[in-house]
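hey so i finally got around to running the thing on that chain from the lab meeting. sorry it took forever, my laptop kept dying and i had to restart like 3 times. anyway pasting the input first so we r on the same page abt which one it is
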Amino acid sequence: MPVPWFLLSLALGRSPVVLSLERLVGPQDTARCSPGLSCHLWDGDLLCLPGSIVSAPGPVLVPTRLQTELVLRCHQETDCDLCVRVAVHLAVHGHWKEPKDEQFGKAADAELEEPRNASLQAQVVLSFQTYPTARCVLLEVEVPAALVQPGQSVGSVVFDCFEAALGAEVQIWSYTQPRYQKELNFTQQLPALPQLSVSADGDKVHLVLNVSEEQHFGFSLYWNQVQNSTKLWQHRNLTGPQNVTLNNTDLVPCLCIQVWPLEPDSVRTSICPFRKDPRAHHNLWSAARVQLLPPRGWRLEAPCSLPAEATLCWQAPGGGPCQPLAPPLSRENVTVNKALEFPLLKAHPNLCVQVSSWEKLQLQECLWSDSLGPLNNDMLLVETRGPQDNRSLCALEPSGCTPLPSRASTRAARLGEQLLQDLQSGQCLQLWEDDLGALWACPMDKYIHQRWALVWLACLLFAAVLFLLLLLKKDHVKVWLRFLKEDVHAGAAARGRAALLLYSADDKGFERLVGALASALCQLPLRVAVDLWSRRELSAQGPLAWFHAQRRQTLQEGGVVVLLFSPGAVALCREWLQDGASAPSAHGPHDAFAASLSCVLPDFLEGRAPGRYVGAYFDSLLPPDAVPALFRAVPVLALPSQLPDFLRALQGPGGPRPGRLADRAEQVSQALQPSLDSCLRPPGTPEAGREVGPEAGDRT
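ok and heres what got predicted. didnt touch it at all, straight out
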């Protein structure tokens, strides 16, 4: 049965190392012989009638061996069928008969000499059967007299070819007409397509490979990209049967699976089961990115080809939709992973790229915001040029393009005359120009400053009037200010300063000591962040990402990062300083201290640490000179002996009075003492007030 090309092309693959089948062009059957022989293929098929065996009158040609080979018969470049090539090896069978009567010997020799010098001819039949087809072809072969040696092989004749289906069983017979011996037969099982099935289970996708047990096979996951180019993702050699699990986020429409037996000339099976999967299309757009290529190029990057249209748009600050610009980049189809160029004169942070599919916006990137900064408060003027040097200007606003000048009530209409003057005086930046028009970006900051100047003037006037009223009621004002001051202090105390506590998890006892310190600091109050209380977020984000987020939030709120030194932390710092750029590996999956060194140490090396960091150590666990000198750029305080100075550094300039600070230091010292005693107690010594036994360990 002919194999459809869409299945055969997936099954056979493209690797010449694994599979290299010869291609035959054209639908005609052909025959060829070994050197010295001549052969001819009869047109059309014939009936398969072997007939009975007859005696050979002398030397005759008979088939001795059948040999097959898989080839491809291609009607066009991408239209091929699997085909079986058959080679029939021939030999001379039988002998010349000798004369019985001596008196006629000379005459008989003369008669026998003529046939012995003649060539041998034979009609060789090839019968081919596979469900549901059967064929018989006839080959005429002639062997010259010089090669006729009884019992010797004379060569072979090759027939191209019998079409068959993958996985089919084929049977081949060969004999001559007339038939001088039992027909040769040959049975072959063609390679079958291994079965692949896909099933989903929650967030996982299971690939079931139905391969016979203990069979070794290759397994590949690849992306079938633009113009049938492939990009390998994973490759493994496995033993069947197998179940392979993928995440839902790994699925894209062009993700294909390919398996093949680890044998020479093996047939590959491929399947691309996610082409119409909604999850795969969602993941594809999530993975797509618009990349800026200097100086004015860009590229849409995605794992698979996708139907996309792109256009430039103008994003005004303060939110709102990005307004498409027909010129200079009209909506056009975009080829994935191909470099394109913007027809722009100048870049601008408010210029963005919109990528749509089937008129639905899928992606928007403001490519120049990273290099040119945040969005500018500029007004985009669109210039349209007509015949005879006629031109018109309009200002792009959320409500549309407002003509200039105009009596409308929009912002651009009110500033129309000023915008035209800015354009004529060269204060606007030209972004694009051609014969049809131009785009100009005009700054609006000065007009905003003028508006705010009026607001500030009104505020100052109101403050002066309020001050006069307060002078008239001075006694009431004093009482009100006292209450206001108390409210401010109460609010500040309730909120507290942010503090990020970093430490090295040397052992369980030290972790309990850190937890006690963090809990005591929260009572001051301080807003303390420590990885002991954020295990779930730490596992989800990873130590480095968690530290980056906490450090950025703490410093943005005017907080402080506390480096709590211990023997383990000092060892990590020294290892980092000795190895240079190669950071040490983390002690565990939740060790934020080791992960944070890649950001903490550059702050100290570049002089950014003062005012942001405070160091501390427990004087009973670490000698003062053990802290590396690099960290002495910030206060490094001993606990609990220097607790008042430590709390003063944490709470900042607006902290409580000295007497109040001493009371808080005493509270923190009392909270730390049990955990500190536990760290100093020799291993194996039971803690006071705690039960010893298996039941005690279960009480948490």
